[in-house]
Amino acid sequence: MNEVLQYTIQGLAAGSFYALSALGLAIIFGVLGVVNFAHGACYMLGAVVAAVLLDTVGLGFWPALLVVPLIMFAFGVLIERTLVRWLLALDPLYNFLLTFGLTLLLVDLVKRRYGVSGLPYERPDVLRGQIELGALRLPTYQVFVFVFSLLVCVLVWMLMTRTRIGMIVRASTERSDLAQALGINVGRWVTPVFGFGIALAGLAGVLAAPFRAITADMGSNFIIILFAVVVIGGLGSILGAVVAGFLVGLVEAFGQAYAPTFAQILIFVLMAVVVLVRPAGLFGREETAR
Amino acid sequence: MPEAPMLEIRGLDAFYGEAQALRGVDLTVAEGEVVTLVGRNGAGKTTLLRSVMGLHRQVTGELLFEGRDIVRTPAHKRARAGLGWVQDDRGVYASLTVEENLLLPPVVSDRAWALDKVYEAFPVLADRRRAGGTTLSGGEQQMLAIARVLRTGARMLLLDEPTEGLAPVIVRQIGDIIRQVKESGGTVLLIEQNVKFAATVADRHYLLAQGSVVESLDNAEFSARQAELLQHLGM
């Protein structure tokens, strides 16, 4: 029993990184129609920036949870303004290729500057050790990652469902040209939405920093699984991205525990089954799956 | 016409790539008028309406709204200038509730209907305000689409086949709404295949064929020649 609970919390912590990142990916895809291949690299950058800031200016984990996403937001705005924007009018494939190229560039730049051996990152004292609940012992950091990420997902969900900004994002996601005809300046939301999506990937990176090896390649496998998450959840579906993120984390954790050789394959089997049964994904609508 | 028309189109050409969909269209709509566009499928009616809204951009010619040339103006600015769009498929958002659909477009003039007034005029929308937009029936969605632009206070409504595929009782209701809009001084340009319905709501009619305006008729001529027009429309 305790073992199952261990894997569950481990899966939910790993799923947190997927959920937060997939949320960003889904929002960007919804409003811009861009599949951001560089999302894994942005997750990696979030972790690297956190590690570098700790090493150079002594910026700790707690402030990094705010500062790094802000830096990544600015980075996203820069990328959107200087590169992505110019290709939006063309076939979406061009931006896919652009962000793919950007990934290679970012990964190699990080390798060149910081090597391939991985950067150190210590988790803060309060997050070390285990939480004891009666007979249960759960790793504090994993519990924290899950609770914190869930909180962020709920906040983003409320932003999307309870505010005017969220309403505009949903309308632009569903039918951009119609929103224009109803007086919504969709173009004005493109840059902040892209920055916001990148910031979420950066936040996932900060959370991963004390938990995973911080290397230039940490985003390469991550992005592949992230695409599976988005397909399972439903392309452009915000709720789907979150649910599928945690689900894939769980599948991965239990797979690694009970069938280590099949752990990765299981995720893609899940994806194949979902696509066969519901081509638009668990929470996708047919029209957004065009 | 005594004063400058609200909408004036001169020599409008529209293209889809190499193909020309509109050829030198001239058309005017005065303030307070209800004008229909009639013609067969493929005559260019929807292209013309989408060009006025700014959803079809591959156009040349003059497009004056309240005296200002808007041919290069993006759609969202045209909406804010007072053009109200009702799409042929109703354009109701599935990911927004009925009330959110109503509140999405910004208010553009003091003619705007308050939400209470909308709900009074369309009780079915009040009952379903928390429901998803596309859970409404086709007729209810059409009501929502029209109510949505009335709430913004748009000075001129562009309606693309508002009665298409709807039950007679709903068609009558939509007729009532259009007459109510006209009585309160509103202006409407609509596409209508239903010639009988068109004659009951409109002041004037433009007959389109192969991308050009072939005739402009007032309502008396239009009603007198109904049989001939029905034949032209292939009905």
Automatic annotation (TrEMBL), chain A:
It is found in: Cell membrane. It is a multi-pass membrane protein. Pfam families: BPD_transp_2. Coiled coil: none annotated. Keywords: Amino-acid transport, Cell membrane, Membrane, Transmembrane, Transmembrane helix, Transport. The chain crosses the membrane at residues 12-31, 61-79, 85-107, 138-160, 189-211, 223-251, 257-277. It comes from the Bacteria. Its main location: membrane. Belongs to the binding-protein-dependent transport system permease family. LivHM subfamily. This is Branched-chain amino acid ABC transporter permease.
From TrEMBL, chain B:
InterPro entries: AAA+_ATPase, ABC_transporter-like_ATP-bd, ABC_transporter-like_CS, BCAA_Transport_ATP-bd_LivF, P-loop_NTPase. It holds the Pfam family ABC_tran. CDD domains: ABC_TM1139_LivF_branched (cd03224). Residues 7-235 form the ABC transporter domain. Signal peptide: none annotated. One of its GO terms (molecular function) is ATP binding. SUPFAM superfamilies: P-loop containing nucleoside triphosphate hydrolases (SSF52540). Keywords: Amino-acid transport, ATP-binding, Nucleotide-binding, Transport. Belongs to the ABC transporter superfamily. PANTHER family: HIGH-AFFINITY BRANCHED-CHAIN AMINO ACID TRANSPORT ATP-BINDING PROTEIN LIVF. This is ABC transporter ATP-binding protein. It comes from Nocardioides furvisabuli.
